[in-house]
């Protein structure tokens, strides 16, 4: 099964932004944190801008900033803004006439709904500030600056 790293990459970017909330970071700078192309960064966080999680400005001194304080941004909001499904499977029909697919959906759909609800509840209680604090604690323990990450 292929792992979707979009949420983890986005969280990586947002933790760096939360570390320096007053400094706008360009797509180029953010791309270096996750070893990708700036276009990928812009596509990935466009939904975050639409949700008010980040803001952007163009021109000299422009870039991306958090749209609000990290303690007011939940992981559930981030996931929703990205349009991510966090479970490794979906029960959306792809071949409605397939009897095997119908059986799989019948057996797994209640489980999927319950798992998504539980996951959403948990993610709504974790904020970007929680992630940033843990990141800071870990790097303070080993004496590494966040700029080295």
Mean pLDDT: 87
The low-pLDDT segments are none
- Class by SSE composition: mainly alpha
What is the count of β-strands? 2
- How many separate helices? 6
Q: What radius of gyration results from the CA coordinates?
A: 18 Å
Q: How does CATH name the architecture?
A: Orthogonal Bundle
Q: Main sheet: which strands, in order across?
A: 1-2
**What count of structural domains?**
1
Please identify which CATH superfamily we are dealing with: Winged helix-like DNA-binding domain superfamily/Winged helix DNA-binding domain
**H/E element sequence:** HHHEEHHH
What is the name of the CATH class?
Mainly Alpha
Question: What is the approximate shape?
Answer: elongated
CATH fold field value? Arc Repressor Mutant, subunit A
Task: Note the beta-strand portion.
Answer: 5-15%
Distance between the termini: 28 Å
Q: Biggest sheet: strands, sense, closure?
A: 2 strands, antiparallel
Q: What is the helical fraction, as a range of percent?
A: 55-70%
Pfam families: Rrf2
Protein name: Rrf2 family transcriptional regulator
GO molecular function: DNA-binding transcription factor activity
């Amino acid at each position: 099964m292929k792992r979707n790293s979009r949420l983890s990459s986005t969280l990586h970017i947002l933790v760096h932004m939360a570390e320096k909330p007053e400094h706008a970071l360009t797509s180029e700078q953010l791309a270096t944190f996750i070893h990708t192309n700036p276009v990928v960064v812009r596509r990935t966080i466009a939904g975050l801008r639409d949700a008010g999680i980040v803001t952007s400005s163009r021109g000299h001194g422009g870039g991306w900033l958090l749209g609000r304080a990290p303690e007011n941004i939940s992981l559930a909001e981030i996931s929703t803004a990205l349009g991510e499904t966090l479970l490794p499977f979906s029960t959306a029909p792809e071949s409605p006439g397939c009897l095997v697919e119908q059986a799989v959906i019948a057996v797994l759909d209640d489980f999927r709904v319950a798992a998504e609800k539980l996951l959403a509840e948990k993610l709504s209680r974790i904020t970007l500030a929680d992630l940033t604090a843990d990141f800071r604690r870990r790097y303070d323990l080993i004496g590494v600056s966040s700029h080295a990450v």
